[in-house]
TrEMBL record:
GO terms for molecular function: aspartate ammonia-lyase activity. It holds the Pfam family Lyase_1. Residues 410-456 form the Fumarase C C-terminal domain. PANTHER family: ASPARTATE AMMONIA-LYASE (PTHR42696). Residues 15-339 form the Fumarate lyase N-terminal domain. This is Aspartate ammonia-lyase. PROSITE patterns: FUMARATE_LYASES. One of its GO terms (biological process) is aspartate metabolic process. Keywords: Lyase. One of its GO terms (cellular component) is cytosol.
Length: 477
């Protein structure tokens, strides 16, 4: 293998001749061989947008010029188009507040531009990673700005995924509206509810998450680009500071805004904590829903067995015919990971000291992973679980008729003492309450079926009689 020699303040180092990275990246590789985690592709894309905005701003204002600018822009476009991801090699967990990633990007853009210009990599007299690619920038403004651009890209996809999930749940709400099932509290039988109402509650919770995610974009659109080292804009021209954000806004199409107080925007990252909390709230919704689906499908012969999930894979290496609820199980694990990531975001955001937060690499990693998990898990929940879910109507009806929960609906008509007697006789004789009701001459089969209609248990309360005691309503109700 052939090598080229590059220099930095620590001395010289041999770099593989064909490598697009340079000496700063090579040292970071040696310093941080810790996790094997690479930067999210969307973060690399976002970094490309930020670099392009800075380069275009410097070109427009006359701070950067020459024929080589075209090659730089071509290299940056390749980074944005994910053609250079394999060259961003620094471990995502790194010291230095993200400087190693920034330098990795700077070196790759510079060397790719040199390659396009027909020059050798490392000939930085023409195109330099710092003098040209990083002109008027600091890691401390381009790294967090890239974090927010990446988050905005993923938030668009997350909103789409959550919207499609809500639509599928609403579809199931209507599809299952005619099926009455036993409701349960504390895992014990309670009053009946339609399966449609069960899914309506899921849909309503997701609709709140959808709104929160939509509004969360407002929380992270404020950026500190131009603030350079600590937010004072030192080493950056005033006209550059004002124009850079506008250029980035035009490039991305996002409603980005330069922070009014760049010192605050550089050192405080509470907006990420707020949005992470919103993601955690959605993960709570998903975990609860996933657990409910597991419970309702449990058995199926010796458990609730009220819904049937699509069999996606064999459930056991030893039990023939066993099928497990693998998608809900996966969803619960994703939710737990998002809970953990939220704690990481909280810890890292709170650990900033004075004018800088050195722990943004970990915050960024956890934050973007949660967004990616939300997009993927919501999509899989729709495609591999909800769209093919089936309801065992016979099992639902059997549970309703065998249980005592429906008796609560008879209180307004027969009163507490009579209903208690029905329940007591049914329990002692181990017979369904409906048999006791007929035996006591209170209702016939037709009346019982009318009483156990989904419509009857979908109303909000009951309509009281005009005069107390009319229509059979008991005074002791």
């Amino acid at each position: 293998m052939k090598y080229r020699t590059e220099k930095d303040l620590l001395g010289e180092k041999l770099i593989p001749e064909e490598a697009l990275y340079g000496i700063h990246t090579a040292r970071a590789q040696e310093n941080f061989p810790v996790s094997g985690y690479r930067q999210e592709p969307v973060f690399i894309k976002a970094f490309g947008y930020v670099k392009k905005a800075c380069i275009l701003t410097n070109m427009e204002l006359g701070y950067l010029g020459g024929d080589f600018c075209g090659y730089i822009l071509q290299a940056v476009d390749e980074l944005i188009d994910s053609q250079l991801d394999e060259h961003i090699i620094v471990d995502a967990l790194q010291g230095g507040a993200g400087t190693s990633t920034n330098m990795n990007v700077n070196e790759v853009i510079a060397n790719r531009a040199l390659e396009l210009a027909g020059r050798k990599k490392g000939e930085y007299d023409l195109i330099h990673p710092l003098k040209h690619i990083n002109l008027h920038q600091s890691t401390n403004d381009v790294f967090p700005t890239s974090m927010k651009v990446a988050a905005l890209i993923l938030l668009n996809d997350a909103e789409t995924a959550v919207t499609e999930l809500q639509a599928e749940l609403q579809k199931k709400e209507h599809e299952f509206a005619h099926i009455l099932k036993t409701g349960r509290t504390e895992l014990q039988d309670a009053v009946p509810v339609t399966m449609g109402r069960v899914f309506s509650a899921f849909a309503e919770a997701v609709s709140r998450d959808r709104w929160r995610i939509f509004k969360s974009r407002e929380r992270i659109r404020v950026i500190n680009l131009g603030g350079t080292m600590i937010g004072t804009g030192i080493s950056a021209p005033r006209d550059y500071i004002f124009l850079a954000t506008e250029t980035l806004r035009d490039l991305t199409g996002f409603n980005l805004s330069r922070g009014e107080n760049l010192i605050d925007s550089t050192q405080n990252h509470d907006p990420f904590v707020e949005v992470s909390g919103i993601m955690k709230a959605h993960a709570v919704t998903i975990r609860k829903m996933a657990n409910d689906l597991r419970l309702l499908s449990a058995g199926p012969h010796s458990g609730y067995g009220e819904i049937q999930l699509e069999p996606l894979q064999a459930g056991s290496s030893i039990m023939p015919g066993k099928v497990n609820p693998v998608i809900p199980e996966m969803l619960e694990q994703c939710a737990v990971k998002i809970f953990a990531n939220d704690q990481i975001v909280t810890e890292t955001a709170s650990r900033g000291e004075l004018e800088l937060n050195a722990f943004l690499p970990l915050l960024n990693m956890a934050f973007l992973e949660s967004l990616r998990l939300i997009i993927n898990m919501d999509t899989l929940l729709v495609d591999k679980c909800l769209s093919t879910i089936k309801v065992n109507e016979e099992q639902c009806d059997r549970h309703v008729r065998a249980g005592f929960g429906a008796l609560v609906g008879l209180l307004p008509r027969f009163g507490y003492d009579t209903v208690q007697e029905i329940a007591s006789r049914a329990a002692q004789s181990h017979r369904p309450p409906s048999e006791i009701i007929k035996e006591m001459g209170l209702m016939d089969e037709t009346e019982i079926n009318q009483f156990l209609s989904p419509h009857n248990f979908s109303q909000l309360g009951y309509e009281p009689p005009a005069v107390k005691g009319d229509s059979g309503y008991a005074d002791n109700s």
